[in-house]
Design brief:
The protein is mostly helical. Helices cover 66% and strands 0% of the residues. Keywords: Copper.
Length: 118
């Protein structure tokens, strides 16, 4: 996986605790890159704290907007990585089974893409 990673929140901005149809022992597609995702998300948290500090310190608005843009791009990168992992792992596995689970995974992926492009 490249250094481009991302996580897309569900409607309302909060991620579900476990929205998948996998059992408790199942592994999600991103699990092999979990540490890279966590490291990237920690850097994004730092960027968000930096933006808050910039506002507190009354920095120039264009500089703040530049940092917001960089943070947004980093989050989008994580989202795209997770989406790709989901398609390669969860959707492909479900498609191989060829039952209703396949249709559900395709609907989930389509809904996630629709949320992402809004």
């Amino acid at each position: 996986m490249s250094d481009t990673l991302e996580t897309t929140p569900h409607e309302g901005g909060a991620a579900d605790a476990d929205h998948s149809t996998h059992g408790p022992a199942a592994h999600h597609g991103y699990i092999g890159d979990k540490q890279r995702y966590l490291n990237r998300l920690k850097r994004i948290e730092g960027q968000a704290r930096g933006i808050r500090s910039m506002v507190e310190d009354e920095k120039y608005c264009i500089d703040i907007l530049t940092q917001i843009s960089a943070t947004t791009a980093a989050l989008e990168s994580v989202a795209l990585g997770l989406l790709e992992d989901h398609l390669r792992h969860c959707v492909v596995d479900a498609a191989r089974q060829g039952d209703e689970q396949a249709e559900e995974k395709i609907r989930e992926a389509s809904a996630a893409i629709a949320r992402f492009v809004r």
